């Protein structure tokens, strides 16, 4: 069956939380209050993927002024601890706060569909770019022999296979550096993340900004 990708609704919350718990056992899942606040603040940026009616993926985003953050930021700071209180419709950057796919149904194009939804939203809202800080889940196996930046570069050069960063590169993102202490609880990444950017080549600085759909 085809995967359905649509905006997240209240009925999806428990399925998303269950998937978060399974994928990130060392990181506490978002509370129902987090989802409620995210959907109230920026409903167009919250997306869920369904397969046969079951939640198999999710992506959450908000709009920020990137000049307020830069390389030296962490997840709690840029997302308002997941409540998206930092969301600013006047910004020009769509920030990817979270994206994940059920590992039991990979290779079904779910991740590509979620990323495509983000790019579509970025174009629809005439935003300049998408920025995210992606996990480096294989880094813990190499942390004794190299730093996180060297690890990321070896992934880019093809010497190491990191499934997250390699996927993001295939989706048209560019590597911008490593963020230290991004999510300290992320044991696999040793707290590090790869800062990535996708540029909206259709962005027009003088164009009137459309209103997000609700």
Account of the protein in words:
- This protein has a domain at 61-199: 3-Layer(aba) Sandwich (Aminopeptidase), CATH 3.40.630.30.
- The longest helix is centred in the middle third of the chain and has 15 residues, at 110-124.
- It has helices at 13-23, 32-41, 75-79, 110-124, 148-157, 163-170; strands at residues 4-7, 46-51, 54-64, 93-101, 129-135, 174-179, 193-199.
- It has 214 residues and is an alpha+beta fold.
- Strand 2 and strand 3 (54-64) form a beta hairpin.
- The chain is built from 6 helices and 7 strands.
- The mean pLDDT is 93.
- It starts with a strand and ends in a 15-residue tail after the last strand.
- It is globular and about 50 Å long.
- It has a 7-stranded mixed sheet, sandwiched between helices.
Q: Which CATH architecture of the domain at 61-199 would you pick?
A: 3-Layer(aba) Sandwich
Q: pLDDT below 50 for ≥5 consecutive residues: which ranges?
A: none
What kind of assembly state do the chains in view correspond to? single chain
Molecular shape = globular
Rg calculated over all Cα atoms: 17 Å
Order of helices and strands: EHHEEHEHEHHEE
Fold blueprint:
Blueprint: E1 4-7, H1 13-23, H2 32-41, E2 46-51, E3 54-64, H3 75-79, E4 93-101, H4 110-124, E5 129-135, H5 148-157, H6 163-170, E6 174-179, E7 193-199
Parallel strand pairs: 4-5
Antiparallel strand pairs: 1-2, 2-3, 3-4, 5-7, 6-7
